[in-house]
Specification:
The protein has about 375 residues and is of the alpha/beta class. It has 9 helices and 17 strands. Bound molecules: nicotinamide-adenine-dinucleotide.
Amino acid sequence: MTDGGIGIGFIGCGDVALRTYAPGMAPLAGRATTVAVYDADPARADRLADRLAELGLPRPRIAPSLEALLADPQVVGVLNLTPAPFHHEVNVAGLEAGKHVFSEKPVAGTVADAWTAIDLARERGLTFLCAPAVMATNRFRWLKAQLDAGWLGRPTLAVGQYGNMGPAAWRDYKGDPAVFYGTSVGPALDLGVYILHAITGLFGPARRVSAFGGITIPKRNVLIPGREGQVVDVLAPDSLLIHLDFGENRFAQILSSFATPRSKAPMLELHGELGTVSISQETWYDTDAPVDLWRRDESPAGQEQWTPAVQPPSPRIGQLIQAGPEHFVAVLAGEEAPILGAAHAAHVLEIIVAAGQSIESGCAVETNVVG
Ligand SMILES: NC(=O)c1ccc[n+]([C@@H]2O[C@H](COP(=O)([O-])OP(=O)(O)OC[C@H]3O[C@@H](n4cnc5c(N)ncnc54)[C@H](O)[C@@H]3O)[C@@H](O)[C@H]2O)c1
């Protein structure tokens, strides 16, 4: 602990750290402080420290190495914001050093690695949480309570889609877009993961997975200023259509794509015996936006229409990604039970791995969920 509350260390000081996590620390002032930052590129660590100072927060120390950051006694918990291929090794290093860990997604490259780290955290009595923070947002906490209370009747079907052209086409992206089209990431681990956390967070674990997918647009011109002329080879399926079977005749369908120029489809729709919930793409990251609700009415004069359903206001952070570190701090402070446990992320990873196996084999793949 520091005078500013729980000491946080940033590992990886790139695009998401600078743009989203740093401003997300401002509302936590007094409860948590960034005491140290580390990046393999020291200039990036320096820039993040400047950014935190510009936000009126204390300027953190710049650790010269990962080991130095993890040896800092004021660092209680770390935010692992490195690129996906480094998540597992950094998570394990953090846990072995006795630090609580919040990891960006995916939790690891393989389900076995994810469980090695989860078991390590359990052995050491450490908190190990993982993005995306969908289920910790105000909107999804409320939605889960409403569904559990029978709002939709028995949930039967979920349909989601998250697609765009990927980071090569995000003109304001500041990181290296190539990694996202490689075999260690792809759209399911980068975008589909949000929908999968939402659906499995609300419906529970999936038992069977089947998928189609492939590389539909194999080369991408990079549109990011400063990287003009670069071309990225697409090495992993850039469009995946994933089907999930939850048992008891409950199903889901997810489109996850880096080959979708634009769409007006909702991000997520949940259907139940009594109605439908629809969440637009436009409000996906706004965690206080209403959802649209359609309630069935079988009475003779049946009044059925879309109505915006609003959750009670909350002082919680209103941006989906920033809800992750906020929840991490609340868990470390003993104020909340973990919602974003790494075991949930491991199940979502299992689904994505199974989708890849199904694409290869043409067969449905069972998950390891018992029952
Ligand atoms: N950028 C976004 O909007 C966004 C949104 C949600 C989630 N994420 C996730 O956040 C993570 C980081 O993404 P990003 O867009 O910030 O990438 P980025 O490439 O901009 O930043 C990653 C940073 O990590 C550093 N790094 C690489 N290996 C390291 C290591 N071993 N130790 C310490 N630092 C290391 C790099 O130098 C770089 O500064 C990814 O998992 C990504 O999926 C990003």
